[in-house]
């Protein structure tokens, strides 16, 4: 039997630029489980498929081999959302300390902008 789910999940992981460990950490499962899923030895849970769909902006139906359309019902992202996704993807690749620093700075900037707006 063809391992369509595993192949698609591996394709998604590689397109995101993640190692198996980084991908596992991001979706909160073990690295061996990623390996088992990609090799077809295990089937991912619905929750795992949902997490992968959310981080990759790819439909669950595509991941599960039920559709060949990666984003059949996708709503186009606005320019701001595309910009934010770009920076989120960059921040995700930072080490934990740098991620925390970046998030604190972003929160501070948004708080300052909120204060400016509501003067």
Automatic annotation (TrEMBL):
<protein>
    <recommendedName>
        <fullName>HTH cro/C1-type domain-containing protein</fullName>
    </recommendedName>
</protein>
<dbReference type="Pfam" id="PF01381">
    <property type="entry name" value="HTH_3"/>
</dbReference>
<keyword id="KW-0238">DNA-binding</keyword>
<dbReference type="InterPro" id="IPR010982">
    <property type="entry name" value="Lambda_DNA-bd_dom_sf"/>
</dbReference>
<feature type="domain" description="HTH cro/C1-type">
    <location>
        <begin position="9"/>
        <end position="63"/>
    </location>
</feature>
<dbReference type="InterPro" id="IPR001387">
    <property type="entry name" value="Cro/C1-type_HTH"/>
</dbReference>
<dbReference type="GO" id="GO:0003677">
    <property type="term" value="F:DNA binding"/>
</dbReference>
């Amino acid at each position: 039997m063809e391992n369509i789910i595993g192949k698609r999940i591996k394709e998604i992981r590689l397109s995101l630029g993640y190692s198996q460990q980084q991908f596992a950490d991001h979706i909160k499962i073990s690295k061996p489980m990623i390996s088992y899923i990609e090799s077809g030895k295990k089937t991912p849970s619905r929750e795992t498929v949902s997490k992968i769909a959310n981080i990759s902006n790819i439909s669950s139906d595509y991941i599960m081999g039920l559709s060949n359309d990666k984003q059949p019902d996708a709503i186009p992202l606005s320019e701001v959302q595309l910009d934010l996704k770009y920076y989120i993807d960059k921040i995700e690749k930072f080490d934990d300390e740098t991620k925390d620093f970046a998030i604190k700075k972003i929160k501070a900037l948004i708080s300052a902008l909120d204060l400016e707006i509501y003067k």
